TrEMBL record:
Domain (ABC transporter) ranges: 5-238
Record Gene3D superfamilies: P-loop containing nucleotide triphosphate hydrolases
PROSITE patterns, per database record: ABC_TRANSPORTER_1, ABC_TRANSPORTER_2
Family membership: Belongs to the ABC transporter superfamily.
Protein name: Amino acid/amide ABC transporter ATP-binding protein 2 (HAAT family)
Keywords: Amino-acid transport, ATP-binding, Cell membrane, Membrane, Nucleotide-binding, Transport
Highest taxon above the source species: Bacteria
C-alpha cells in the first residue's frame, strides 16, 4: 500500500543552520503519527516545511503519490494538507462562527454543506455552539484549541497536522482534545501530531518518531515506543 505521506531525506535550514537534517518517514492513510522530541529538535520546522511555509533545502515530500515539496501553501491546502500551528492563529476580533466559516473558505461550499459542517463542529465540541457569537479572543485556552481544530476540519483535510495542541492547557482539556483527535482517526482522517506531552500523544497514535537534533533517532509503532527504555527515560518520565 502506498503511504498518504512519504517524506524522504528532507533538509530544512535557517540560513546556515540546518534545523531538519535528512528526515525520512511515512504515514499511511487513516493513521495518526506522532513526532516527539526535546525542545529545539526541529519539530515545528518539520511541520512548517511539510505545509509549505518553509522551503526545503532538499528532499521529497510525496502526498498521495505526488511530490509537493516545491508547492506553495495554497496548493497544498487544495490537495488536502492542513496545519494547526502552535499559536493557533485565530481571528481574535471575529466570532467563533466567523472563524469556522473562514476555515471552509478553501473550497467554495454550497450553503447546505457549510451548515452541515458547522453542525458537525458544534456536535464535536458543544462548548463552541454555546459560544458561537463570542469573539475568539475572549475564549479560554482550551476553547481556542477546540476552535482551531474545528476550523481546520471545516475544509475536510485529508491530512491534519497539529503542532502542540496540548500546549498550555489544563490536563482535563488535554484529554478532551486528544480523545477527539483519536475519534478523527476512526473517521478515516490521517493526523500528524507534534507533542511535548509524549505519553498522551503516543496513546492515541498508530506510530511515533523521536526527533533529536533534526534527525529521526527512533521510529516504531506507538505501543513499541511507549515500552522502549530509551523513550521512557528521555520522554515519558522514566515511568
Ligand atoms: P520546541 O519543542 O521548543 O517548539 P522544536 O522541536 O519545534 O522545538 P524548532 O522550533 O523547529 O524546534 O527549532 C529547531 C531549531 O531551529 C532550533 O535550534 C531553533 O533555534 C532553530 N530555529 C527555529 N526557528 C528559527 C528561525 N526563524 N531562524 C533561525 N533559527 C530558527
Amino acid at each position: 500500500m502506498t503511504a498518504l505521506l512519504e517524506v524522504h531525506d528532507l533538509h530544512v535550514a535557517y540560513g546556515q543552520v540546518e534545523a531538519v537534517r535528512g528526515v525520512s518517514f511515512s504515514l499511511q492513510e487513516g493513521h495518526i503519527g506522532s513526532i516527539i522530541g526535546p525542545n529545539g529538535a526541529g519539530k515545528t520546522t518539520l511541520l512548517a516545511s511539510l505545509m509549505g511555509l518553509l522551503p526545503p533545502a532538499r528532499g521529497k515530500v510525496c502526498f498521495d503519490g505526488v511530490d509537493v515539496a516545491r508547492l506553495d501553501v495554497e496548493a497544498r491546502l487544495e490537495r488536502g494538507l492542513c496545519l494547526v500551528p502552535e499559536q493557533r492563529e485565530l481571528f481574535g476580533d471575529m466570532t467563533v462562527l466567523d472563524n469556522l466559516v473562514l476555515g471552509a473558505y478553501v473550497k467554495k461550499l454550497a450553503t447546505a454543506e457549510l451548515r452541515l459542517r458547522l453542525d458537525e463542529a458544534y456536535a464535536r465540541f458543544p462548548r463552541l455552539a454555546e459560544r458561537r457569537d463570542q469573539r475568539a479572543d475572549t475564549l479560554s485556552g482550551g476553547e481556542r484549541q477546540m476552535l482551531a481544530l474545528s476550523r481546520a476540519l471545516m475544509s475536510r483535510p485529508r491530512l491534519l497536522m497539529l503542532d502542540e495542541p496540548s500546549l498550555g492547557l489544563a490536563p482535563l482539556i488535554v484529554t478532551e482534545i486528544l480523545t477527539e483527535i483519536g475519534h478523527l482517526r476512526s473517521m478515516g482522517l490521517s493526523v500528524l501530531l507534534v507533542e511535548q506531552n509524549a505519553r498522551a500523544a503516543l496513546k492515541v497514535s498508530s506510530e511515533g518518531h523521536v526527533l533529536e537534533g533534526g534527525q529521526i533517532a527512533i521510529s516504531g509503532p506507538a505501543e513499541q515506543l511507549i515500552n522502549d527504555d530509551r523513550v521512557r527515560h528521555a520522554y515519558l518520565g522514566g515511568a
